[in-house]
Specification:
Blueprint: E1 2-5, E2 15-20, E3 26-29, H1 32-48, H2 54-79, H3 90-111, H4 115-122, H5 126-167, H6 170-175, H7 180-212
Antiparallel strand pairs: 1-2, 2-3
Helix pairs in contact: 1-2, 2-3, 5-7
Length: about 210
């Protein structure tokens, strides 16, 4: 995204923000928020889908243009004024959004990126869905067992350290290198870190389920 004063033949002198469309052309938007929103949607569409043809990329250009306009009008309608604080016709904006929503839906169907098309391409029967659901439930159960094993093991280790600390005097604690600081350090390195690592590994696997659904 680049900022260009007067870009795109702008006669009013307001700075515009240039983004690159999927087909490689430039589009000038009115705010950094619009540009960030556009680039985020563009990148996500292209990461999640394959568009091998130039015509598909051009359709994607049009889809994103319609979506960014709907985004703009929704913002204006919600706040009651536009980017230069002028009052807006909320009824007209509502009609515009409704009309463009139809075109957006049709473009998504043509590109094969609407939910119904994705579901058809999966070809997942009720039996397949049930099997996958049971498989994921089993993996979630394994994860819970791993969490339980880790929690119980670390709890007994922590219990032993604290009870030893309570039984010892300062000289014995020094010989054992056992202090409140070392106990807290052990909790950070051996409890919290291992728990977070276990959760992160499961979330990575779970994200694949969500992407497939």
């Amino acid at each position: 995204m680049t900022q260009q004063p007067g870009a795109g033949g702008n006669p009013y002198g307001y700075p515009l923000f240039t983004v690159t469309t999927p087909s490689g052309s430039e589009l000038h938007l009115q705010t950094t928020e619009e540009a960030d929103w556009y680039e985020s949607r563009r990148d996500r569409y292209q990461a999640d889908n394959m568009f091998p043809n130039v015509s598909d990329l051009q359709d994607l250009d049009r889809l994103l243009m319609l979506e960014v306009l709907s985004y703009r009008w929704s913002l204006w309608m919600g706040q009651g004024f536009d980017y230069v604080y002028a009052r807006v016709d909320e009824g007209q904006l509502k009609n515009n959004i409704k009309e463009y929503s139809v075109e957006i839906r049709l473009l998504k169907q043509n590109l094969g990126i609407d939910k119904s098309t994705r579901d058809k391409e999966k070809g997942e029967s009720l039996s397949d869905y049930t099997t996958n659901l049971l498989h994921r439930a089993k993996q979630f159960g394994y994860h819970r067992n791993d969490q339980y094993e880790l929690a119980v093991t670390k709890m007994y280790e922590l219990r032993s350290m604290v009870m030893t600390y309570d039984r010892c005097d300062e000289e014995e604690r020094a010989l054992l290198d056992l202090s409140l600081d070392t106990i807290f350090e052990w909790v950070r390195d051996n409890v919290i870190k291992e728990w977070d690592d276990l959760a992160a590994a499961f979330r990575k696997n779970q994200s694949m389920w969500i992407k497939e659904m």
